[in-house]
User: Fold these one by one.
Assistant:
Number 1:
Amino acid sequence: MALPAVIGVDIGTSSSKGVLVALDGTLLRSAVRAHTVARPAPGHVEMAADVWWTEFVSLVRELTADGEADVRAVGVSGMGPCVLLTDADDVPLRPAILYGVDTRATEQIDRLEHRLGADEIRARCGSGLSSQAAGAKIAWVADEEPELFARARRLYMPSSWLVRKLTGSYVLDHHSASQTTPLYDTVARSWYAPWAGLICPDLELPPLRWSGEAAGTVTAEAARLTGLPAGVPVITGTVDAWAEALSVGAHTVGDLMLMYGTTMFLIHTVPGLLTAPALWSTVGALPGTRNLAGGMATSGAVTAWLRELTGAPDYADLLREAEASGPGANGLLMLPYFAGERTPVMDPQARGVIAGLTLSHTRGDLYRAALEATAYGVRHNIEAIEAVGGDIRRVVAVGGGTQGRLWTQVVSDVTGRPQEVRTTSIGASYGGALLAARLLGDASVDAWNPVQETVVPQPGTAARYEELYGLYRDLYPASADVVHALAAHQNR
């Protein structure tokens, strides 16, 4: 007899991941499809929507190949906020413009701030305009590709695109909508017609639902393509970081999730609307929740770059060498702004800096400096959250970077905060599966994914890292003029 199960699939920046999960939370099978983004111009980061659906079908086929599971529901999530524009027949008009790592819309941000008012935007939308704002990127398409934009009728993100292909439903979750600044009113929790009419008057903005609500059921055609049973429900889905937070239970007031991935993401759950110029205020994935969020433009992207640059050694070898380097990386200090920086720096023209290099430094020192740079960035974000009234009571870590322990240990040492690590850290795909299971009945995250360990700060590192963190904070303003000039050369 086939085992009742759910499927969760997440479309990420560097890969798509799928999981098959029993209704008690047991991970039965997982699969991954690696992909790359396109960078057609400086500051432009894109991906074709065909990749999302092709990889979804491939993942589901692999997960269900043995026929031993009876799939009862499907969960979806994906990177975001993204801008995929289609015509009225759902034909994509161009590759999707990705989230805050794409920094193209600086002129549109300036224009919209001047016209609408920065304070007014933040009061209504929760967040100011930044590289994370999907609405500004829609305005970029209107300005730079007007003939294409004239044919645009619908807006999708990875999760909502999968929902459309699976069920035929055109919907978007409230959380993803709250990152389309300035199109969504976070107070009213609805599209804001006056500003939407200004930026994209001919777009049919999708009806809104909460992430865990059913968007529809698998159609006969989608069942033929994927092998899923026709008629099983599909959740509305959400942005990957929020699904990841759900996968580890980090969604109650006072929680802070740290997502260790290609980028580092932080989500703090707050009791009410809380805004800050250098952070993002959003509605949550679950009804009634609100978040204050931050995101670094790189984290795992820098460690992967260093690995390729030094001959592609095993990550285990790099971690051993970095651990041997010790706190402070033998006097190296890195700014991890290799793709600009999001919060709280909010500078798309920032660039990476490695300070203190000598001929005696090793690969392990560089790798350690990269891990520590991420930790300093996390601390900077935490301080920004608390400066505007955030009350962080618990930190939960998730994502591929939690494996190997060193990275999470460095972050705890730099921030002085313990981090919970749960049994399953596969992330957003597991969170999507959890939401799918909740369509069928009660599914508790504590039963599905109990705490495995708590990483605590090591005695003796606080003073050393306090000094280095001060230098880290000094290095950006000291080098900003130079790196901005270099960024201008790169953008020519």
Number 2:
Amino acid sequence: MENKNYHIYPPSGSLDLLSKVESDLLTKSADGELYQLFRNCLLAVLNTGSQTDDASILFQKYQDFEAKISRTERGIKLELMNPPQSVFVDGELTRLIRTNLFSVLRDILYMREIVSSYDKKRLVKYGSQKIATDIVFMTLRNAKALKAAYDYNVVVCWGGHSINEIEYKYAREVGHELGLRRFDICTGCGPGAMEAPMRGAAVGHTQQGHEANRYIGITEPSIIAAEPPNPLVNELIIMPDIEKRIEAFIRLGHGLIVFPGGVGTAEEFLYVLSILMMEENKDQILPIVLTGPKESESYFKTLDHFIEKSLGKEAQRFYEIIIDNPSLVAQRMKQAMPLVKERRKQSEDAYCFNWSLTISEDLQKPFIPTHENMSGLNLHKNQPKEKLAAALRQAFSGIVAGNIKESGIKAIKEHGPFVLHGDPELMELVDQLLNDFVSQGRMKLPGSTYQPCYRVEK
């Protein structure tokens, strides 16, 4: 491959200055692990719009890609060596790609600084739950994602990266209806159901003359290479781990829309249900709508059946299912916003960050999906429903890792599939749900053959 180097300076308003220590930390020789994290996230941004779901393919294709940070009289200079050529337009990067590259730099450095600053004394004084939420808040604040002067208008959209064309079009139509009502969109930043509502909202915002549009993409280091940012993301935020990523969605957003997806969407959905089922959160207002075209109705019936049989009817009251009606979905969000605002007023909470929400430690503590941890999950019904939802969320998180994360794929290759144990009835429900995801092509991109990374023992 022809050797090509590019010198990139940050756009106005992004990260402008680095200390000598910070720039030294991101050299290949100083901290190999931190540099590799930085390099991989940069590579993912340079593959914006890619439809891959296998990080190893991306890393293999661009083995000779390197990056170097230096401090100059003009501020920061980022040197890219042998980057993907498809992202350049006449030898130049778009402003959005440049912005997102420096968002990676901002978040990787801040991630190291903020996590390392919490020593044992502070953990003892404040407790791990407050510390985890503090990290989420400060990461979002450092990224300027918390707009104190803004009103309540961020809708979080979850859904699969491998949705079909009909589902993509539907999610785009929902996004259009949200854009017409001046809602901003926050997703996991990848393709599919994460891109479609942003694309639709962009048209709706233009029609309404809504210039301060925000397309927020929240990701984390182990998943960004498998799901590179889509071309609409204009605020890229990298959280330290998957748990803080999901917490950021819930505390930043004012409403939640769930499109068809796979096991990752189920993980996120179980996370939020576990939170809302806690007694401490009984007064919370978070409108949740599950929606898709009529062709996807069976998907929602399957998911709804799983929730009813595993967590009970009380869990079903936290969400509404709307089929094939994009305008009604957006109307539901708009109708709920005065209630969200009133709740924030009553609890003297911020509009831009939901501090009053209680999140249990088992949802905040990073779950490491080893074979031992997966087989040791408490997948039994003789426990509080919110605890069972949290355990099911961990099981699905492990399957996500086995499907698309580099560490999970490696573990499966070395030791075989993860094994899940639990109540026979519950295991039957889990097996049925996962089999439905596989048969609907929701575990891999269309056209690829799925090899299960798990085995359910009943």
Number 3:
Amino acid sequence: MSTHLPTADVQDPESNARTARLREALLAAAFTADGLLDLLGAPAYAALARSETVPALRATRGDSPLETLVRLFLLQRPVELRRARAALPVADCLADGWLVQDGEELRASVDVRPYAGPEEQDWWIVSDLGCAVGGAGGIRGVGERDRAELVLGVGGASTTLAGLTVRRPVGKALDLGTGSGIQALHAAQHATHVTGTDLNPRALRIAALTLALSGAAPADLREGSLFEPVGDETYDLIVSNPPFVISPGARLTYRDGGMGGDDLCRTLVQQSAAHLNDGGYCQLLANWQHVAGEDWHDRLRSWVPRGCDAWIVQREVQDITQYAELWLRDAGDHRTGDEEYAARYDAWLDEFEAHRTKAIGFGWITLRKSGSDSPSITVEEWPHPVEQPLGESVVAHFARQDYLRATDDAALLAGHFRLADEVVQEQVGLPGAEDPEHVVLRQNRGMRRATKVDTVAAGFAGVCDGSLPAGRILDAIAQLVGEDPVLLRDRTPASIRMLVEQGFLEPVAAGG
């Protein structure tokens, strides 16, 4: 597989004009996320994510410009020169290296995948050949050196992080480990200045192509590891989809941390505070070890730097054999000989044994530089479905922590609350029973949490519309259930705090 990359130069006005004409051609052919789905249909579109290209090949047997572009840029198929000329400004693409000519056929030098922005913008993510769909595990015939330097396109991890990220206007944003540039592309929509870093110089080149082809402003792209390329600069937003895989060695730059165990993710988290402006966020995906004899919650709390609040969510846990097999397949090692595969599998298990690792967790880490002497650190497990995007839910989470940190029980009872939107109540019990065994409050938005509450808490939440202070509502409930109102006021603040912390209740101004 060729390692050639396009030579399009964002500093050259003529090259920029050629890139703009290419973008116009892609739009004219409907080579967009919606156009791709319309052409292929849902089954073939989904098959691409599994590295299965046969359904898409069957759907692109015609001569339309869109079918030509799909074959060129997504399916790695050469096309006849006459077909390419009907879809693209061929001279421009040859001049800037997007296409390579071989006789009367043309082939793409990179994969280009249509991608819909958060406001339905039509963007395109550039990646190495074979990496736009299905990840590196689907690539055939790539040498070891080439594979180590690969730059992947859009995957589940990158879209997850994009959805999690706080999208408030900021001055400076840093995409650490930019890869194909998807996070930098998102950040360019709400940050005045975007910096992207990567250890792999190919990634920086491809990120520049992604930004240029998508019509975004150029980013300040710098080569190096972790925070080394930015010195002591600080940012309002740091995002990172780092090479978090816990593996023996660092064979694959795009995924392997190259440090022992989960040290790369820990180091990134601990060093981030020094590069955040006050009130700034650092958001990243990470893997972490579950170590024999240690509580994983405590392990992650120990990572959080001084002066930062944190919200850490474990989304999935795999035992060490599942984890090793997943990433051996990602590297294509399952297609090697039995002895070689077994030797590499053994090396992974040796790595885990050396660090007393019994399982690997995957999840999200968000830090906010609050400067508080009593930081809020939430470490939780939530493997259930959520509703993306979650950026506003992240902002709301930390706002609730600020409120609870500043509000004692007396102020809590004097406060006014409203039931959050999309919260429903479920009563669980045996059929025909007079009273339910328990009551569940469930969110239908954001984190989609569910929590079991007693009848007092359920009744309290149900009447919260912002008009009455919490204490008066409890007094009315006490009269209804025949309980001492003083005792009810004493034992209920913990339940109110829990409902506020998890987003079921929202503090409001009096009457509001």
Number 4:
Amino acid sequence: MSIAERFPIEDIDRAGVAQLAALIRRGELGAVELAERRLADIERRAARTNAFVTVDREGALAQAREADLALARGLPLGPLHGVPIAVKDNVLTAGLGSSAASAVLADAPLQGEAPLVARLRRAGAIVVAKTNMHEWAYGATNKGSHHGATRNPWDPRAITGGSSGGSAACVADGLLPLAIGTDTGGSIRIPAAACGISGIKPGTGRVEGEGVLPLAWSFDAAGPMARSAEDLWLGLDAMLPGSASDSSRHAAQFREARGRARLRIGMLAGEGFETAPDVGRAFEAALEVFGQRGSDLVPVAVRGMAAVFAAWKAIMYAEASTFHRPLMHDRAQRYAPDVRALLHAGESVSAVDYLAAQQFRGAFRAAFARDLAGLDALVLPTLPVTAPPLAESRIEFAGRTTTVQDAMTAMPCLANFTGLPAVSLPCGFGDTSLPVGLTLIGHPGGEFALLGLAAAFQDDTAWHAMRPGHAMATGQEEGAHVR
């Protein structure tokens, strides 16, 4: 009996990581037939978003056959057994060269495998593809790729956000249930918000950077992107080093936080947190969900966001230019113009400026930790606007005009600057029916408690279940997002 005869196709296409892994484990769905379904969809639809740089059909099917054989033999199965995933092109993946979507490495992609990918495979995940990205992760639009721009599944005329735009697009479009991204100033959360999915940046150092091509080592983090916080929990747990007891502890933290009814949530406010009116309305409506659960919403005034943004830039510029200096010496003309300009700018950051920025960072992190004390999480809009058009390089909102790059990164960079875990969740739609995201920032080492809070939010809403075209096709009305 075929997959279409046993399940409505839309159910399989919308199924998340936990659902698919359970079906495969029970023998109700074969890993090979799931892989074939996903590969057929990729072949038919992926060009619409340009989400992938490499699709490994033969390798994916070989992994899937091994997964079915392991189940048949009664071998131990991991939590992601048979689940197809994609990996961003700056994360080394065995059998698939990695070039960070750059012409610099196009003729000699880097080989090897990052430990985080090896752990995902040991958990049973099947690597299907490498995803498109802004070259070297140095951009928030995903327009700057050697393979061409990635397009938003909700509207192909709009950006996905970057730099993990390909990972966000393939999940949002239902091509794969889980993808890996990296985040230096919002590069997981920006495209998650713009494409209407969920994504988490773990705290600094939680996922080691070995095998991940860096942008700025002070801020870099790798994390999962999926439709739901529950799937993020499974993906992140598989990415982290640790034992079975560690996984059990993560599961307990997730479930305990998910079941909590009364929370203290800090609402970040002040200069630097302004949004476009439609984003503000969607965000305010989302805050009501926390209130309906009995949570206390506590205003938290943050001062110095302009200084945070400037210091984040100075550190990122200097560290990126340091890493790229040898390649720039030999292959400068192979870089995309926008990335090359940023790398040249980083060469002008003095040691004094860099150290002053790091010193300010230390003081700000200490003050921010005091703001977070006594709260379960902090909440803010992920982005001040919905996804801008691909053709635009500047944008106006809240009475000012800025570059799309700066608009996309000014608020998300806060979590990188403080080193705290942060998750972006879909929370509604703007005036043009493009998704809006909210961010929850948690405590150091509190990724799984944070994801539990995020899952509780999603238990009371249906935004994460929306697919491109669905809200518009069903004539979604105000308030229809709350279950």
